[in-house]
User: Which sequence fits this backbone?
């Protein structure tokens, strides 16, 4: 029998997916749903069946399988709505995004060595199998955030806003605050720092987004100064959607995240304490800002201004 917390989590996840599906059918034109989307649906359904029947290695590698399937589904939905998508129009860029996703997530893993906010359970003991699982899981994070944002942006109504006037002084304050958020957990005693992982979830976007704007790279601040908010809303809502899907799939997987930060453990929904879901919203913004900076450093992204 499911606990009330699990039932609540399933309800929120189902409602979130239901809103997306309803929005897709409401906005869809006459374009067919692409074949790779049906492949993703079939793969996800088969993986779910094998997970609950204990079929290996699917049970162990369920999380990356689910996310790879989801990326295909989300990309296909965007293609059906917009007649363009990342996988269809820029597959090499999407592959590069998956490659960069691994070191970008390892930044958070490095913080976790000190803050000890999560651990992994059920991971294969063989190092090659374990690293394959880690790498595959980490590679899916950034593409999933971006594909979900694309889907949300395709479904959003027009969002007219006045351009924001963002001064250089305001950018300097953001950069300083972001740097402080990232440094404080490393400098104070570990027993206190363990309560401050939220600073890491906001620090990178505060630090990097103003820098990206100054470099002429895509940024939320640049969007706001142009009166464009669709991307900001898209990534913000992407964090909510992906957060619930992550924890829903993680809850049933054999190899999974187990959260150990020293508060709210009695309020768990799936494996995540309920307040932790709010952290996924700024995390999605961070994924965008970090990816933009990293892809520019790698020479894969050029300045737009």
Assistant:
């Amino acid at each position: 029998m499911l606990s009330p917390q699990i039932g609540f989590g399933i309800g929120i996840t189902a409602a979130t997916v239901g809103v997306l599906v309803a929005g897709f059918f409401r906005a869809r034109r006459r374009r067919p749903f692409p074949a790779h989307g049906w492949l993703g649906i079939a793969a996800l359904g088969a993986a779910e069946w094998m997970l609950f029947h204990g079929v290996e290695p699917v049970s162990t590698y369920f999380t990356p399988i689910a996310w790879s399937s989801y990326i295909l589904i989300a990309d296909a939905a965007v293609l059906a709505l917009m007649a363009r998508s990342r996988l269809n129009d820029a597959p090499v860029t999407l592959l590069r995004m998956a490659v960069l996703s691994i070191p970008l997530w390892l930044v958070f893993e490095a913080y976790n060595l000190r803050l000890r906010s999560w651990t992994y359970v059920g991971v294969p003991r063989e190092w090659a199998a374990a690293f394959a699982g880690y790498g595959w899981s980490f590679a899916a994070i950034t593409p999933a955030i971006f594909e979900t944002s694309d889907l949300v942006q395709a479904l959003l109504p027009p969002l007219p806003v006045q351009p924001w006037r963002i001064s250089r002084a305001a950018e300097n304050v953001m950069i300083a605050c972001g740097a402080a958020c990232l440094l404080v957990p490393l400098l104070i005693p570990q027993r206190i720092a363990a309560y401050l992982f939220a600073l890491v979830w906001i620090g990178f976007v505060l630090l990097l987004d103003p820098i990206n704007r100054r470099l002429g790279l895509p940024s939320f601040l640049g969007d706001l100064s142009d009166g464009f908010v669709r991307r900001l809303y898209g990534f913000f809502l992407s964090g909510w959607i992906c957060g619930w899907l992550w924890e829903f799939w993680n809850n049933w997987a054999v190899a999974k995240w187990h959260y150990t930060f020293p508060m709210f453990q009695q309020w768990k929904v799936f494996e995540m304490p309920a307040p932790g879901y709010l952290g996924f919203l700024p995390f999605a913004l961070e994924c965008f800002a970090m990816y933009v900076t990293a892809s520019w450093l790698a020479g894969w992204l050029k300045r737009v201004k």
